[in-house]
Write a structure and sequence with these properties.
7 strands
């Protein structure tokens, strides 16, 4: 075999290997960000800010594409959703929330959607049905991305209200946080809150925990330890793959798929829902994509977690991992 033939065959083999290797994180993110701009009508200036946040991280995206093994494809999700009846509340939600893929937050016991003062993303970020959620994002980065989109990170009580199906008044117990370190404050507030709601547990889909209702049947990467970019794939489902996994307010995947960053204020001045940009501490909400086989903790709607990997939300070293994402809220005028 002459040198030219060997060179051609080697080049062809390299091209095939690259083709089968799949996209890099940067290539995957480029597709994601273009879709984000198109679906949400974002300006070039907004996208410049979001692209800078992604670039600064080097990890934000839909997981390490070299090792992530998703149990369902976006195409399979879209085909299944196409067979379902069209939602009847889409136009009303868009009119109230002034944009696509958001659901009004309100208490049905005191009025209808017209009484909403805030909206929450219907789907985990990028808030596009049948796309994989974005993970490997720090709480600070999540807050910055939400702000770039003209939204904000949700307060914990808003996420809890979206999950249970009724937005109640904030009940953080700020008096328990005065004059003590953040970890002590969170423990006191958490214990009081969880005790108050222990008797009325419910999940986004109903009053009893059920397997198979939400995106909780995936598997960890073999050999995955507690975390690690090169060891743990983000083996999530496309958002909204499970049509029954939604709350009474029409918000999907609050249980299962990716866990989610929220803002837990330790003082009224740290409430994002009241306009603060001096946010509180990190609160990780919901369960994640292997919860049917490994229930690591409670995950009912109003359950508040311990101060795991706890920092201030805007700490540049706030927590990130392979199954932790976010969604945004928006205060209505």
């Amino acid at each position: 075999m002459n040198k030219r033939i060997r060179f051609v065959l080697a080049a062809a083999g390299t091209a095939c290997a690259l083709a089968f290797a799949g996209p890099t994180l940067q290539q995957q993110n480029e597709v994601l960000l273009n879709q984000l701009q198109q679906v949400h009508g974002l300006s070039d200036a907004q996208m410049k800010k979001i692209r800078a946040i992604f670039a600064r991280s080097g990890f934000i995206g839909q997981g390490n594409p070299a090792i992530s093994t998703h149990p369902l494809t976006p195409e399979q999700c879209r085909a299944a959703r196409a067979r379902l009846p069209a939602p009847t509340d889409t136009q009303a939600f868009e009119r109230i929330c002034h944009g696509p893929n958001m659901a009004p937050l309100y208490d049905p016991a005191t009025g209808g959607v017209e009484n909403a003062h805030a909206c929450i993303d219907e789907y985990e970020f990028p808030d596009v049905p049948c796309e994989y959620p974005v993970v490997w994002v720090r709480a600070r980065e999540a807050a910055e991305i939400c702000e770039a989109m003209g939204k904000r990170l949700c307060d914990a009580h808003e996420w809890e209200g979206a999950c249970e199906g009724r937005l109640l008044a904030p009940d953080y117990g700020f008096d328990l946080a005065r004059g003590v370190p953040a970890n002590v404050a969170v423990a006191r507030m958490r214990d009081a809150h969880n005790h108050a709601h222990a008797a009325d547990k419910r999940w986004s889909y109903g009053p009893e925990y059920k397997r198979g209702i939400c995106a909780t049947g995936s598997q960890k990467t073999p050999g995955c330890p507690g975390g690690g970019w090169n060891a743990c794939g983000s083996n999530t489902y496309p958002t909204a793959s499970f049509p029954d996994c939604h709350s009474p307010l029409g918000v999907y995947d609050l249980n299962g798929n990716a866990a989610e960053h929220m803002n837990l204020p330790l003082d009224e001045s740290q409430m994002a829902s009241r306009g603060s940009r001096e946010l509180g501490v990190t609160e990780m909400k919901g369960s994640w994509f292997i919860f049917d086989t490994y229930r690591a903790h409670e995950d009912w709607c109003r359950w508040r977690a311990p101060f795991w990997h706890g920092t201030r939300v805007m700490d540049p070293n706030s927590h990130e991992n392979y199954h932790l994402g976010f969604r945004c809220c928006e205060t209505l005028p």
